[in-house]
Amino acid sequence: LSPPSAHLSLKFIALGRGTQNYTCPSTNSSTAPTATGAVATLYDVSCIAATPKNHGHQFLHALPGLTRSIPQEVLAFYAVLLSQSAIIGEHYFSAPQPSSTSIAAAAAMPVFDLRPATFGKQGGRYESNWVKAKKVESVNAPRGGDGDVPWLKMVGVEGSGIKEIYRVHTAGGTSPATCAAHEGEFGVEYAAEYWFYG
User: Fold this and answer.
1) H/E segment holding residue 132
2) Is residue 115 included in any domain, yes or no?
3) Which of 94, 155, 157, 196 shows its CA 20 to 30 Å from the CA of 5?
4) Residue 33 has pLDDT above 70, yes or no
């Protein structure tokens, strides 16, 4: 993935834990599931990345694989137990609005809402951090054979405080190859690092 724009700085690093969502019209083995978005809780891991001598980065990059098998409710409980600020926000997809003339509103788009945890004075002014984004780059995850969703670079099309987002070090989330065992909506567990620049 290309680097962040030169005028931006790193604001937050989060561990996202949730589901990549899909739908199948029937249990047809010749039909592939259709992606419908994702939902995830975002946990603040910025301080882990700031650990000296690169040990923090090694641990940070291991977190998605470690947390993919832990139930989301357990992670949320530990986050509350350790500190309310551990949960930094939510990731979801906006509802499509076909009648809208705005391209950003016409299609379901990824939203990262960090307002509850980050609203406040930052850099001398008050700022709320949220963004509706669009994907601009995608590369296969290095461990793609394990069913990991691609790494992405996204740019904001609406929002405040966040301009570019990276989804990296993904674990899980890839749909099954066919709808043979699925009908209707379903989710596939995943975890990933999200790097927010603004």
Assistant:
1) strand 130-139
2) yes
3) 94
4) yes
Residue 59 lies inside a defined structural domain of this protein: yes
HSE-CB at 37 with a 13 A cutoff on CA atoms is 17
Range of the domain at 174: 10-197
Average pLDDT for residues 67-93, to the nearest whole number?
A: 70
In a domain, 3, yes or no: no
Distance CA 12, CA 84 (A): 16
Q: What is the pTM of this model?
A: 0.81
Calculate mean pLDDT across residues 96-115.
Answer: 71
> For residue 162, which of 70, 52, 66, 88 has the smallest C-alpha distance?
88
- pLDDT score of 104: 47
Nearest one of 107, 82, 113 to 94, comparing CA atoms: 107
Segment 162-189, tens digit of pLDDT: 999 999 999 999 999 999 988 899 999 9
SS3 at position 45: coil
Contacts of 118 (CB under 8 A, 6+ apart): 12, 88, 89, 127, 128, 129, 161
Q: Which two tokens stand for residue 65?
A: 């694989």
**Is 168 domain-assigned?**
yes
